[in-house]
Amino acid sequence: MHEIIAAAKAENRNLLEPEAIKLFQEYGLPVPGFKVAKTKEEAVAAARLLGYPVVLKIISRDILHKSDVGGVKVNIQSDDAMAAAYDAMMEDVRRRTAAEIEGVMVVEQADKGVECIVGMVQDQQFGPAIMFGLGGIFVEVLKDVSFRLLPLSREEAETMIKETKGYQLLKGIRGEKAKDIIGLTECIVNAARLVGDNPEIRELDINPLFVYEQGLKVVDGRVLL
Ligand code: ADP
Ligand code: MG
C-alpha cells in the first residue's frame, strides 16, 4: 500500500489535499508548487519562497468543499496581503465550522485555462470507472461527461475526450488555438493508473484541471478512501 494512503488509513481519514497532490505528482500529473504552513509567519515565508501571486487554502480532514467555508483565498500578491488573508481565513473557517484545522497550503497560482474534470467513481457492478468532462456548465448543467472502466488505454482516453461536446472548446473554436489534448490524454491515463494501483481509493476528483495551449495544471484534488 502506498505510504500516503497507509498513513491516512491508519487515522481513518481521507487524504488531505497536500497528500493528494503529492500522490498525483508521483503519478506524473502536473501539479503546482506548494508548501504547507502551520502559522501565519510560515505562510508568509512559504509565499516568498514560491513567489507571488499565490493561493491560500485551508487544510482540514473535516472540510471537503473549502470555498464554502471561506477556506480558499486567491490572487495574494504581497506579504501583507498574505498575513491579512491568513487571519481572515482562520476567522471565517472557525466561525462557519467546528473543523479541526491542520494548517494551510500555500500554492503557486495557476493561470486560467479551460477547466476540465477528471474523476473516478466506483461502480457497484464493474468496479472503478474513470470520468472526464469540461468543468462548469458542461458537467453541472449539460451532464456532458464520458466514462470508461479500467484498465484504460491511451486510445480510450483520447476517445473519452473526443466524445464530449466540450471537446469543441479544446479543439479551439472561432480562431482560438487548440488546447493540449495530448497532455490531457496523458493526465487521464495517469489518473487511471493511480487508481488501478491503489484499490483503497473509493473516489477521486481532480476539479478543476486547467488546460492550456501547452501544458496543464491540477488546481484541486480530492482522494476519498
Ligand atoms: P474547493 O474545495 O472549494 O473546491 P478549490 O481548491 O477548488 O476549492 O479552489 C476553489 C477555486 O479557486 C478553484 O476552482 C479555482 O478557480 C481557484 N484556485 C484554487 N487553487 C488555485 C491555484 N493554485 N491557482 C489558480 N486558481 C486556483
Ligand atoms: Mg475544487
Task: Provide structural commentary.
The protein has 225 residues and is an alpha+beta fold. It is 36% helix and 27% strand. The chain has helices at residues 3-10, 17-26, 40-50, 79-96, 137-140, 154-162, 167-171, 181-197; strands spanning 34-37, 54-59, 72-76, 103-108, 114-123, 127-134, 145-149, 203-211, 216-218, 221-224. The strands form two sheets. Strands 5, 6, 7, 8, 9 and 10 form a six-stranded antiparallel beta sheet that branches. The protein has a four-stranded antiparallel beta sheet with strand order 1-4-2-3, covered by helices on one side. A hairpin with a 3-residue loop joins strand 5 (114-123) and strand 6. The two termini are 12 Å apart. The protein binds adenosine-5'-diphosphate and magnesium ion.
Distance between the termini: 12 Å
Shape, please?
Answer: globular
- How many β strands by DSSP? 10
- Residues in helix, %: 25-40%
Report the bound ligands by name, code or SMILES: adenosine-5'-diphosphate, magnesium ion
Largest sheet: 6 strands, antiparallel
| Secondary structural class | alpha+beta
Write the layout of secondary structure elements.
Layout: H1 3-10, H2 17-26, E1 34-37, H3 40-50, E2 54-59, E3 72-76, H4 79-96, E4 103-108, E5 114-123, E6 127-134, H5 137-140, E7 145-149, H6 154-162, H7 167-171, H8 181-197, E8 203-211, E9 216-218, E10 221-224
Antiparallel strand pairs: 1-4, 2-3, 2-4, 5-6, 5-8, 6-7, 8-9, 8-10
